[in-house]
């Protein structure tokens, strides 16, 4: 009769969650581009195979306001371009704005690719950022005009909000059994330099949206 195999118990280390606040300070301008309701509706129409509507005249203030992640009430803008700009400027001057926390986590996770001995897979589960949006600490954004290529080489002008000097504070839960607080801080620093967030960030061959931990 074969001897009975002795089972070895598997030791699973307990979670040790430490919550820290990280203040990220921008080292280059942050350009944001939230999906507008108009863009979402166009995608719904395309998926539903609805006939394309004629192009409306471009109103820069509409694009500017629609591209922001509003934490305060978003204004309704008139159709007239000049009046729309006046309403937008007044609302933006006193508004509160955010940026998706998932973008900062993505930057830190991507930063793992530049650090020896740390994997992106392991990094994803090692920490989580609380909340959907981090409030942007900044002077009111300015409207940035940019030329882009849209399909078949066609050029178009886009109007997006730019925060020239900015910062955010993140509340981060870290499983210190998997990764130390110092390692997570280092990942945010590396990700902020090498990857960034927002439009034209280093990860997309730009230089904006860079940040460091203070």
Summed up, what is this model?
This protein is an alpha+beta fold.
Structure description:
With 214 residues, this protein is α+β, with helices and mostly antiparallel strands. It contains six helices and eleven strands. The strands form three sheets. Strands 1, 5, 7, 10 and 11 form a five-stranded antiparallel beta sheet that branches. Helix 2 (60-66) runs parallel beside helix 3 (81-94) and helix 4 (101-111) packs across helix 6. The chain starts with 16 loop residues before the first strand and ends with a strand. The mean pLDDT is 89.
Radius of gyration: 22 Å
Q: Distance N terminus to C terminus?
A: 67 Å
Largest sheet: 5 strands, antiparallel
SSE string, helices as H and strands as E: EEHHEHEHHEEEEEEHE
Content of β-strand: 25-35%
Low-confidence stretches: none
* Tally of separate helices: 6
Helix content range: 25-40%
Q: What is the approximate shape?
A: elongated
Structural class, from secondary structure content?
alpha+beta
Query: What's the pLDDT, averaged over the residues?
Result: 89
Number of strands: 11
